[in-house]
Amino acid sequence: MKSTKMFMLIIAVFLLVFLVSDKAAYAMHITEGILPSEWAVTWFAVSIPFLGIGIYHVKRKKREMHSYLPLVGMLGAAVFVFSCFPVPVVALNGMATSHPCGTGMSAILLGPFVSVLIAGIALLIQALFLAHGGLTTLGGNIFSMGILGSFSGFFAFKITRRCGMPLFWCGFFAGVISDLFTYLGTSIELGLLVINNGGSFFRATAEIFGVFMMTSQGVLCIVEGVVVGFILVFIEKRRPDILVQLGMIKKNAKPV
């Protein structure tokens, strides 16, 4: 119980930084009406199979690990709240905003497919009740934050673990890479919109991604990397059994 309270305190402190740093109300993710119908359908078609596999993994894993569903719920809440606080990117004229994601952390602890499912649910609730993002752009937002964010963070963690790096730095690079790929995905989706107008896709994508990195996301990805690293170290010290059950570590240690 004590370790759970400390974990939630870390999340609360992290969120408070963004609450006090930006009080204006802005739409976040890719906003409603930005994507033409053909692209909206395309991103939904890409995202739906990942969501289906995520549901399958949850059903299978909950039979193997009794505490799995509470863990999914807690990480789902963390991803939802992490991505609820937008930082406006003025240079994009309201097309999208910058924000922490949390999918790197959820992908590490639950696997990338379940992380995609969590991101999809969080994005749907935000679109329905908070006017953050949109329903027509939901598939695109799931692709960038859910699919690219989760899988890039997951593989970054696995690669750094294989290289023998300490757990903190594995979490750090997973958080950073997850953020970078999330906004690379958003930049690609927005960059594709210039093709019909005769614009350069690569130039538009590079410019949008550069705006994200130079304004707010360059700092946010570092902050999120640090937070993810500290959370993993905290769990390893207080509840290593969770990491053992998830297959992240191979030692049968007791909580400190």
Notes on the protein architecture:
The protein has 256 residues and is mainly α. Helix content is 72%, strand content 2%. The chain has helices spanning 2-21, 37-64, 68-82, 103-110, 112-130, 138-162, 167-191, 201-238, 240-245, and strands at residues 87-88, 97-98. Helix 3 crosses helix 5 (112-130). It starts with a helix and ends in an 11-residue tail after the last helix.
Entry keywords:
256 residues, mainly alpha, two-stranded antiparallel sheet, 9 helices, 2 strands, 72% helix, 2% strand, globular, disordered N terminus
What is the count of DSSP helices, taking H or I runs of 4+ residues? 9
Low-confidence stretches: 1-28
Beta strand %: under 5%
Give the SSE string: HHHEEHHHHHH
Euclidean distance between termini CA atoms: 13 Å
Count every beta strand, where a strand is a DSSP E run of 2 or more residues: 2
Average the pLDDT over all residues and give the rounded result.
Answer: 80
**Overall helicity:** over 70%
- Largest beta sheet: what is the strand line-up? 1-2
Label the structural class: mainly alpha
**Biggest sheet, in brief?**
2 strands, antiparallel
Backbone CA Rg: 18 Å
Taken from the alpha-carbon principal axes, the silhouette is globular
